[in-house]
Design goal:
Strands 1, 2, 3, 4, 5, 6, 7 and 8 form an eight-stranded mixed β-sheet that branches. This protein is of the alpha/beta class. Helix 1 runs antiparallel to helix 2 and helix 1 packs across helix 4.
Length: 246
């Protein structure tokens, strides 16, 4: 638990000492990049100090244009690894409760992160529209189409409508396979174990080729791409795999 305490204390100190001045800087200048890159850099340093190593493959598969990164979700450790691996500023569709965290929630809003209330479909749809507007203005996004963390590291079915955002914005989808994060921090656990997280970017899929009526086809294609890039112990179980296109 020493690593966990170190991460929690480090995040609190950085939020106060660095986050507050940078938020003031953004309010004065309107420039978000220093806040974003400082935050990501600090979190990557904290993770390395806590024993989490990251390895990245497939950067050549990321288009130069605005795109939607779609990743599997197994652990609280995968977000730092994935966001730290993406070589540009992005925004995230994140659960609304995270925006209530002091300083952090304000930083999320300033960086154009979009809160999602998964319990209210109407509000979730409105969040998608906000993200579409941002994407059309050039902001790339990261989503977790499973909608929750996998309990055992295996890829879960994707939620219906997960790729409405990409289709409406007319942008490529980059499937992202993240492996090993569930061994660093297991679901529903605060214990941090040393280990390596591999982030693998798969070839992009052009969502502009799909209509909303064909979103299930796009969903199945992205699901299959991520599954193929994961190790055997994180690929969908046979019963889950059969439902992936539903």
């Amino acid at each position: 638990m020493i690593r966990t305490a170190f991460v929690a204390l480090s995040l609190s100190i950085i939020a106060m000492v660095v986050g507050v001045p940078l938020l003031i800087y953004v309010a004065i200048t309107g420039k978000v990049d220093p806040l974003y890159h400082t935050g990501v850099g600090a979190i990557r340093w904290i993770c390395r100090a806590a024993g989490m190593r990251s390895r990245v493959e497939g950067l050549e598969n990321i288009p130069a244009r605005t795109c939607l990164f779609a990743a599997n979700h197994t652990s609280n450790a995968d977000a730092p690894a994935i966001v730290g691996a993406i070589p540009r500023r992005i925004a995230i569709l994140a659960k609304r409760s995270l925006f209530a965290i002091p300083i952090v929630g304000t930083a999320f809003r300033v960086a154009q992160f979009v809160p999602v209330d998964r319990g209210h479909p109407g509000q979730a749809a409105a969040s998608i529209d906000v993200a579409v507007k941002s994407m059309k203005e050039g902001v790339s996004f990261l989503i977790y189409p499973e909608g929750t963390r996998s309990p055992d590291g295996r890829l879960l079915p994707f939620r219906r409508g997960a790729f409405v955002l990409a289709i409406k914005a007319g942008v490529p989808v980059v499937p992202v396979a993240c492996s090993g994060a569930h061994r660093v921090v297991a679901k529903n656990s605060y214990r941090i174990r040393p280990g390596e997280v591999l982030v693998r970017f798969c070839p992009a899929i052009d969502a502009a080729e799909y209509s909303l009526d064909r979103r299930n086809e796009l969903t199945a294609r992205v699901h299959a791409a991520i599954a193929a890039a994961l190790p055997a112990d994180q690929q969908p179980a046979p019963a889950i795999n059969a439902k992936s296109s539903s």
